[in-house]
Amino acid sequence: MNAAEWPLWEIFVRSKAGLDHKHVGSLHAADAQMAIEMARDVYTRRQEGISIWAVESINIHASNPDDAASFFDPMNDKVYRHPTFYDLPDELKHM
Amino acid sequence: MNKLLLDYILHLADNAFIYGHRLSEWCGHGPALEVDMAITNISLDNIGAARSFYQYAAAVEGDGKTEDSYPYFRDVRAFRNVLLCELPKGNFADTIARSFYFDAYQFHFYTALQKSKDTQLAAIATKSLKEVTYHLRFSSEWVVRLGDGTDESKQKMQQAINTFWEYTGEMFAPSAVENEMIAAGIAPDIAALRSDWEKTMADTLQEATLAYPLQLDGGWFQQGGKTGVHTEYMGFILAEVQYMQKSYPGCDW
Questions:
Q1: Quick one: average pLDDT of B89-100?
Q2: Based on CB atoms within 10 Å of each CB, which residue in A24, A46, B130, B230 is the most buried?
Q3: How large is the ipTM?
Q4: Do A41 and B145 touch (CB under 8 A)?
Q5: The domain A3-62 belongs to what CATH superfamily?
C-alpha cells in the first residue's frame, strides 16, 4: 500500500520512572513493526520513555461523551465507595 | 602534533559530517512526516558524531583550533570523506541504498574501532555504535520494504543499489594514512571488514528479493575522497555549508 493508505496507530509510551504507558499521540504506518519504529523516532527522541505500545486506532473503543450524565455523574455523591474511613496504625506504611 | 592521527580523525569526522549533511537535505521533503523525522534524526546523530571527532581533532592539532575550524574553514581538497557520502540524495530509494551501504560499513567499522588503542576514538565508537545500530536497522528495513514491494519500488530500489555499488570499494581500500594507523593499532583493518559487510549486504538484498550487484564488479571502484580528490558535488556542498562564514566572517550565535 502507498503512504496515503497507511492506517492510523495510537502510541503509548512508558517513561523510565513510570509504571503505566501513557498516550502520547498517533502516527500513520504500514504495519505494527513500522509503527513501533516510527514511534521511536517521533515520540521518544527527547528521552520520553523506554517502552512503546502501538495499537491500531480502529482497535481503540471509547465511551460516548453524550453518555457522561448517566455514566459518570452518579459517582459524585457516593462517598461510601472510597476507602477513606479506616483508621490506619502508624506502623503501616505505603497504604 | 601527530599529523597522521589528525588526518585520520578528520577522515572519520568528514565521513559523518558530509553524510549527515546529505541526509539533512530531506528535512521538510520526506515522503511521510514520520520518515522525515526518522531521516533528520539520523542526520543529527551523524552530525553529533562528527562534532565529537572534530573536537578531538582540535585537541590534537591545538593552535587555537576549535570543532568549527574544520567543517567551515577548509576547502574541498582538505576534506577526507569517502565519495559515497557526498553523492546527491536522489530519490528516496537512492538515499536508502546509499544509507544502507554506508550504515552497514559504519556498523562494522565502529564495532571494530571500539578496540582502538586510542581511548578517545574507542569511546566515540562505543557511543556511536548504539546510534548506528538503529541507522542500519532503518535503512536495511526500507531496502526490504521497497525491494519486496511493488513493481515500481522494486525497479527503483534495484537501480539505486546498482548505481552506488561502484562507490563502495573505497570504504575498504586503506589510504597511506590508514595503513599507518592500522599498524599503530589505532584504526581497524578495514579490508578485513569487507567480508562482514558483504554478508550484511547479501542477507538484506536476498530478503529484499533484489539482485546482488556483483555482476557490475570488475574489481574497479571509484575513489579519491580519502586523499581530497572529490567529485564535482563537493564544491556545491561546501558552498552551502560555508555560506554564512564566508558572507559574515567570524560570525557566531
A1: 98
A2: B230
A3: 0.84
A4: no
A5: Phenylacetic acid degradation B (3.10.20.520)
pLDDT tens per residue, range A24-83: 999 999 999 999 999 999 999 999 999 999 999 999 999 999 998 888 888 888 888 888
Q: Please tell me the pTM assigned to this model.
A: 0.92
The answer to whether A28 contacts B31, with C-beta atoms less than 8 Å apart, is: no
Q: Is a pLDDT exceeding 90 seen at residue B105?
A: yes
Consecutive H or E run containing A76: none
* Residue of A5, A6, A31, A38 best to disrupt the B interface, most CBs of B under 10 A: A38
- At B117 the three-state DSSP class reads coil
Contact criterion met (CB < 8 Å) for A27 and B33: yes
Nearest CA in chain A to B138: A37
Q: How far apart are CA B102 and CA B38, in angstroms?
A: 17
Cβ neighbours of A6 in B, within 8 Å: 32
Q: What is the CATH number of the domain that holds B224?
A: 1.20.1260.10
- List chain A residues with CB under 8 Å of B33: 27-28, 42
Residue B152: inside a domain: yes
Q: Strands A51-56, A22-28: parallel, antiparallel or unpaired by DSSP?
A: unpaired
Task: End-to-end CA distance of chain B: give it in Å, rounded.
Answer: 30
A29 touches A35 (CB < 8 A): yes
pLDDT in tens, B164-187: 999 999 999 999 999 999 999 999
